[in-house]
Write a structure and sequence with these properties.
The chain is mostly helical. Helices cover about 65% and strands about 0% of the residues.
Length: about 425
C-alpha cells in the first residue's frame, strides 16, 4: 500500500492516507493500543447519559408551562437545575466528539495494517450501518430517545472526509458548524419550546404512551426523525469532525504534550458551557418565566453552548487521564476505562435496567417519581453497568454488544 508513514502511536495521525492497493486485513485495535483518556471519558459520560435520559420515563406529576415537574421538593428542584446547567445537551455532543475520534483512530489503524482508503471506508460504513440497525431496534424495543441511529447516519456522512487533509477537516468544521447553528439548532429550539407545533401526549401522560404497542410506534417514529435530522440537518457532523481533529492533534492519546492548551480550552469551554445553560437553569428554578420565543432563545443557547461544552468535557477528561496515568487501568480510573471500552454495551444496558423498571409498559415505577428519585435510579443503573464492565474486564471478555458490533464491522475471526 502506498501511503504516508504513520507513527506507531494509535493516537497520532499522519493526516490523509493515500489511495493504494489493500494488502492487509481489517482488524480492530488491540487493547494494548487503546488510549486511556477516551475510555475514561466514555465511561464517565455514560452517567451523564443516564441522568439526561431518565426524566423521559417520568409521568403523572403536575407540570409547569415548560414541562418541568411543578410540585417537586427543594432537593428535586436543586438537582434538576444542576442537570440543566451541566448535563442537558452536553453528553451527546461529547459522545459525538469521541465518536469522531474513534472513526479517525480506526481509519489510521486500518492504514497501518495495509488496508487501502476505499477498504477502510467500507469497514467504517459497515460499522455505521450496524449502529443504525442497533439504534432502530433500541428505540423500537426499549427507549425511544436512542441516539445510536443518529450517530450511525452521521458516520456515513463523515466517510466523505475521513481521509482528507487537516485543512479540509477544518473547512468542514466551520461550514457544517455554521449550518447547524443557523439551521438545525433554531429548528430544534422552536420545536422544543412549542413555537412550532409538535404532537405531544396530554399533560401527565407518558411521552411514549401507556402501552407497549404505543411505545413501539413512538420508537420507530423517533428513530426515523433522529436519522433524518442527522442526515439532513447534520446535527452531529461538526462535532464528529472536531473529534477527528482532536485525534490528529493528539489531545486524547498524548495529553502530556498538550497540557497548557487543554487547560486553556477547558477553562474557555466550561465558561461558555455554564453561561449558555444559565437561562434554561433559571427557567427550571422558576426564577424566570419567558414566553415561548424567550424559551426558544434559551434552548437555542444551551444547544449551541453544549457543542462547546462537549469539547470542554473532552479536555477535562484528557487532563484527568494524564493525572491518573500512573495508575493505568487500575482502581476507579480502571473501572471507568473498563466501562468506556464497553460503552455500547453499557449504554444499552442502561435501557435494559431502567425501561422495564420505570416505563408505563413495565413495572411503571416512573409514575409520580420526582427528579431526585429518578436521578438516584439513573446513578444506580450506571453503577451496575460499571460493576458489570469491571467483571467482564477481569474475565478478559468484551461487552456483548461491542463484540457483536466488531463482528459485523470486521467479520468473523478478526474481532
Amino acid at each position: 500500500m502506498s501511503a504516508p508513514p504513520i507513527t506507531s502511536s494509535p493516537g497520532a495521525s499522519a493526516g490523509p492516507v493515500a489511495a493504494g492497493v489493500s494488502t492487509g486485513l481489517a482488524a480492530p485495535i488491540a487493547r494494548i493500543e487503546r488510549s486511556l483518556a477516551p475510555d475514561i471519558a466514555r465511561g464517565a459520560m455514560l452517567l451523564f447519559i443516564a441522568l439526561a435520559n431518565v426524566p423521559l420515563y417520568l409521568w403523572n406529576r403536575p407540570l409547569d408551562a415548560y414541562g418541568h415537574i411543578a410540585d417537586g421538593t427543594v432537593v428535586d428542584r436543586a438537582l434538576h437545575v444542576a442537570e440543566q446547567l451541566l448535563v442537558a445537551d452536553r453528553a451527546r455532543p461529547m459522545f459525538a466528539i469521541l465518536y469522531g475520534f474513534g472513526i479517525a483512530v480506526m481509519a489510521d489503524n486500518l492504514a497501518r495494517r495495509g488496508v487501502a482508503p476505499a477498504g477502510a471506508r467500507r469497514v467504517l460504513a459497515r460499522r455505521s450501518l450496524a449502529l443504525i440497525c442497533l439504534g432502530v431496534l433500541h428505540a423500537l424495543l426499549l427507549f425511544f430517545g436512542d441516539i445510536l441511529s443518529a450517530y450511525g447516519a452521521t458516520g456515513l456522512v463523515a466517510l466523505a472526509v475521513v481521509h482528507r487533509s487537516d485543512r479540509v477537516l477544518r473547512r468542514w468544521l466551520w461550514v457544517t458548524g455554521t449550518y447547524v447553528l443557523l439551521v438545525q439548532a433554531p429548528v430544534l429550539a422552536l420545536l422544543t419550546s412549542g413555537v412550532i407545533p409538535f404532537p405531544a401526549p396530554p399533560p401527565g401522560e407518558p411521552l411514549y404512551g401507556n402501552t407497549y404497542l404505543e411505545h413501539l410506534v413512538m420508537g420507530v417514529t423517533s428513530a426515523a426523525v433522529q436519522i433524518g435530522m442527522a442526515a439532513l440537518l447534520l446535527t452531529f457532523v461538526p462535532l464528529v469532525v472536531a473529534g477527528m481533529l482532536v485525534h490528529r492533534l493528539g489531545w486524547l492519546s498524548r495529553p502530556a504534550e498538550h497540557l497548557p492548551r487543554l487547560r486553556r480550552t477547558l477553562a474557555i469551554a466550561m465558561t461558555v458551557n455554564v453561561l449558555s445553560a444559565t437561562p434554561v437553569a433559571l427557567i427550571a428554578l422558576g426564577a424566570w418565566h419567558p414566553d415561548a420565543l424567550g424559551r426558544a432563545g434559551a434552548v437555542y443557547l444551551t444547544i449551541a453552548g453544549g457543542m462547546v461544552g462537549g469539547l470542554g468535557y473532552v479536555c477535562g477528561f484528557a487532563l484527568l487521564a494524564h493525572r491518573w496515568a500512573a495508575r493505568g487501568r487500575r482502581g476507579f480510573p480502571g473501572a471507568l476505562a473498563a466501562l468506556g471500552e464497553r460503552s455500547l454495551s453499557g449504554y444499552l444496558a442502561q435501557s435494559f435496567l431502567m425501561a422495564p423498571l420505570l416505563a408505563a409498559w413495565g413495572l411503571g415505577l416512573g409514575e409520580g417519581l420526582g427528579y431526585a428519585g429518578a436521578y438516584a435510579v439513573a446513578t444506580a443503573a450506571w453503577g451496575v453497568t460499571l460493576l458489570g464492565a469491571v467483571a467482564l474486564d477481569r474475565a478478559g471478555r468484551r461487552g456483548p454488544f461491542d463484540a457483536l458490533l466488531r463482528r459485523v464491522t470486521y467479520g468473523r475471526g478478526r474481532q
